Amino acid sequence: MTGKLTNAQIAWRAAQDIQDGAYVNLGIGFPEMVARFQPAGRQAIFHTENGILGFGEAPAAGEEDWDLINAGKKAVTIRPGTAFFHHADSFAMVRGGHLDVAILGAYQVAQSGDLANWSTGPKGVPAVGGAMDLVHGAKRVAVITDHVTKDGRPKLVQACTLPLTGVACVTRVYTSLAVVDIEGGRFVLREKLAALSFDDLQSLTGAPLHVDGAVTDLTVPEL
């Protein structure tokens, strides 16, 4: 499939919805890219499950301090006010509802808001991590993902067939083709690529897309 957003562009779009001063946890891997694209004049406070709050940019190559890593084992820098704490305290922050936003990847998202993102089935390698806590501890849970799998199957589905991470937890999905809200057990289309028709987008989506108000063009910079 051509004419879709890159991972960096999806991450950029998700970053635009993070409010200044929000406490944010980014999932390991692709979601970590969101931190690169904070809008000018805004500064999120990033949290990592292994016990850092308020860390900064990734260090330059060769300048890593490997005592300073995030949950994905990637080197980070510290900022004025960065806090360090025990792993258990970090999860107390998650479970206590102190995070404003969690942004995670996904294998499947159901129209009910159910999320499957830790196992591809019996032959997959389990990788639960902190996601099961994050999806029910953060005040808002968003997903960033390609709209379809590598073999062209929809990732937005009527019901997840893979093991669940959480039930009715996702409220917005940023994909390579669209921005979709989950409201009342339905996928509600908010933005789509201008070159893609609604019918073509629907054909790549495994559950009905609903329109409630204007659908705007999904516009992102070249990155």
Distance between the termini: 19 Å
Report the CATH C-level class.
Alpha Beta
Summarize the amount of helix as a percent range.
10-25%
Average pLDDT level: 94
Order of adjacent strands in the largest pleated sheet: 4-3-2-1-5-8-10-11-12-13
The rough form would be described as: globular
The CATH superfamily name is Glutaconate Coenzyme A-transferase
Given helix and strand content, the structural type is alpha/beta
Family: Belongs to the 3-oxoacid CoA-transferase subunit B family.
Pfam family, one: CoA_trans
Organism: Paracoccus liaowanqingii
GO molecular function, one term: CoA-transferase activity
Describe it for me?
The chain is an alpha/beta fold and 223 residues long. It has a single domain (7-213), classed as 3-Layer(aba) Sandwich (Glutaconate Coenzyme A-transferase). The chain is 14% helix and 28% strand. The chain is built from 4 helices and 13 strands. It has a 10-stranded mixed beta sheet, sandwiched between helices. Strands 7-6-9 form a 3-stranded mixed beta sheet, with no helix packed on it. A hairpin with a 2-residue loop joins strand 11 and strand 12 (186-192). The longest helix is centred in the first third of the chain and has 9 residues, at 7-15. The two termini are 19 Å apart.
Question: In a few lines, what is going on in this structure?
Answer:
The chain is of the alpha/beta class and 223 residues long. It has helices spanning 7-15, 87-95, 131-137, 198-203; strands spanning 23-26, 45-48, 52-55, 78-84, 101-104, 108-110, 115-116, 140-145, 156-157, 172-175, 178-183, 186-192, 209-217. Helix content is 14%, strand content 28%.
